[in-house]
Specification:
There is one protein chain. Helix 13 packs parallel to helix 15. This protein has 17 helices and no strands. The termini are far apart. 38% of the residues are buried. By secondary structure, it is mainly alpha-helical. Helix content is 80%, strand content 0%.
Length: 317
């Protein structure tokens, strides 16, 4: 009899797992609303399935529906309080809600955010994301409500033990946030030497931009391009040249390479490269050439106001 019942249940289990797999595929394809509806129907038949509840919460998170995500992630924490990742997701949703509401209301949930991340870090000594969250949280909070650079450095040190690259990036973040750009530069360079990912290069490039050091930003972008062979780097170099009115020949050359080698995976539409070339020619006082490129940009993306503003600037040359 038991064997008979088991075989009856097999199709149900297979169907259940198939629904969850389908939901995950929808999430991967960014079809979050469809995944939400599928999971809602599923959970009505199996209210205690934590895997389904987690995916359901994820669909809300991707849609930035923080209140709904918090409800689902709280169910995970209550259902399995020793799971570090559940605490991390709960804290993350609370934190995003805090960023979306006024500061006075946010103060009421900051303690819960901190507690969730601390629980995740304590439950899993190797949880990198929770430690990153604590590095950022302690730096961003004012001292009067628990902010602490020393605590941020403590979790950066723990990150360094787990992953040197993450540790160096965390130190760089802390020192950049604390307006110590030389130390931030030192650690971002260490991260590049240790790991060399695009993230490492991007952090250093952004630092140079923020510190108004465009030539250093260009040099770093070129180094990144040599390592990673990404066409998108050509646009980024051209953008810096156009924004800061420096190395205009190099900027134009890079933008033309970007246009010639463009594919959808590059991300930035070609119209923006046309716009940057128009900017470069505006700086050169080459009105005819600037108009040619800005007209191409407007033809591709006619609703972008900054393109129209640039054309007015060119016409006034």
């Amino acid at each position: 009899m038991k064997h008979f019942i088991f075989f009856l249940l097999i199709p149900f289990f297979m169907s259940s797992q198939s629904s969850l797999n389908d939901a995950q595929k929808l999430i991967d394809m960014k079809e979050f609303k469809k995944a939400e509806q599928l999971l809602l129907a599923y959970i009505k038949t199996d209210q205690n399935n934590l895997e389904a509840i987690e995916l359901y919460g994820d669909t809300y998170g991707f849609q930035e529906k923080w209140d709904e995500a918090i409800i689902q992630y709280k169910k995970l924490v209550d259902g399995k309080p020793k799971n570090a990742n559940f605490h991390y997701k709960y804290g993350g949703a609370l934190g995003m809600k805090a960023l979306s509401i006024n500061k006075m209301k946010a103060l009421g949930i900051i303690g819960d955010v901190k507690e969730a991340f601390l629980n995740a870090a304590e439950l899993d000594p190797k949880h990198i994301e929770a430690r990153w969250a604590l590095v950022e949280l302690y730096m961003q909070l004012p001292g009067i409500i628990g902010g602490s650079k020393s605590k941020s450095l403590k979790y950066a040190k723990e990150l360094e033990v787990l992953s040197k690259v993450d540790g160096y990036l965390a130190y760089g973040y802390i020192y950049e946030y604390d307006d110590e750009p030389e130390l931030a530069e030192k650690y971002y360079k260490l991260a590049i030497n240790e790991g060399g990912s695009l993230t490492c290069y991007d952090k250093l490039t952004d630092l140079y931009k923020n510190e108004n050091q465009p030539n250093k930003a260009i040099n770093n972008l070129e180094a990144s391009g040599e390592k990673h062979k990404r066409n998108a780097m050509h646009y980024q170099i051209g953008k810096v040249c156009a924004e800061y009115n420096i190395q205009l020949d190099k900027g134009e050359k890079c933008l033309l390479i970007y246009i010639d080698n463009y594919s959808a995976k590059d991300g930035v539409p070609k119209a923006w490269a046309y716009f940057r070339i128009a900017q470069i020619n505006t700086f050169r006082k080459n009105k005819k050439e600037a108009l040619k490129w800005i007209d191409k940009a407007i033809a591709d993306l006619p609703k972008i106001d900054v393109f129209k503003e640039e054309k007015m600037t060119i016409q006034a040359l």
